Amino acid sequence: YIPPQVRKVQETLDDKKREELGRLKKMVNGLVNRLSEPNLPSISGQMEDLYMANSRKDMNETLTDILMNACVTAVAMPSRLMMEHVLLVSILHHNVGIEVGAHFLEAVVKKFDEMSKSDTEGKECENLIALIAHLYNFHVVHSLLIFDILKKLVSAFTEKEIELILFLLKNVGFSLRKDDALALKELITEAQKKANTAEKKLRDQTRVRFMLETMLALRNNDMRKIPGYDPEPVEKLRKLQRSLVRSSGKETQLRVSLESLLSADQVGRWWIVGSSWSGTPMINDTEKKTQQKLHVGKVSSKIMELARKQRMNTDIRRSIFCVLMTSEDFLDAFEKLLK
């Protein structure tokens, strides 16, 4: 039961909050609508100021909503416009904090998962894939996620998926080759197997042949064989990004898998430092009790005798002592102590 006077206070607070969020949304929307390459420095600067003046949560949610509405449409978005939107996220990700990119990435991946399961006729999936590809191009996310998505698409292997594989490879194929040539090779082998075992109707399609040719061109590092491949716009914007980012871009890349992103609500977001976790407890009490039993029985009696001489009088002290005395090096000791 909430008393009337408290209820009144809450309602006015809610109205105030709603008004504040509405104002914030208008400001962010105004900035995103004016976004273009020449005014990116000033707009990213104004965005940073908004991040300083408002709560991170409100800003992340507002920015993600506005960008998703702008970029995920039923018609294909011009790639230049898409790159500029993602570049803004990337600059904020590096200058404000990694939770900016992480929040946006999670929303995009979840939307992509939802869209790929539905039978929509529009270009939403292509637009979402383009967003993920450019998040990788501008060092927000690691190639691990791109490979996860490609593996998922290859395992499904229908016309829609083949279209998306081609789109992804055209956008980030050569960067993937640079990052992890072995994983790309494995993926190409998997795709060739899938193509050989696919039903005749699908196998004879020029689209499938074209996909395999594109993959071979990637493997042989032959850029001429990929029609419409032009790395220049991305390179130009990367140069702009380097001039606007205050910290070096490598350590801010999110090395997160597709599975982790999709199950973030159940198992928490380990990639964001200090991210609060609300959900069912990960370990219940019975498991805790079994974990308390320490494995001391594996060490020799000589070490146990030494532990006794050093007055290690509890199980936990004895096991720490044994770990320190029997480890091969500091890494081994660290692993064992963690266990």
From TrEMBL:
**Which cell locations does it reside in?**
Nucleus, Nucleolus
Q: Which residues form a coiled coil?
A: 181-208
Please list the GO biological process terms of this entry.
ribosomal small subunit biogenesis
Q: InterPro entries, alphabetically? A: ARM-type_fold, CWC22_splicing_factor, MIF4G-like_typ-3
Main subcellular location: nucleus
DNA-binding as a keyword of this entry, yes or no, is no
Q: What are the recorded GO MF terms, alphabetically? A: RNA binding
Cellular component GO terms held in the UniProt record:
nucleolus
What does the UniProt keyword field contain?
Answer: Coiled coil, Nucleus
Give the similarity note.
Belongs to the CWC22 family.
Function, as annotated: Plays a role in targeting PPP1CA to the nucleolus.
What is this protein's name?
Nucleolar MIF4G domain-containing protein 1
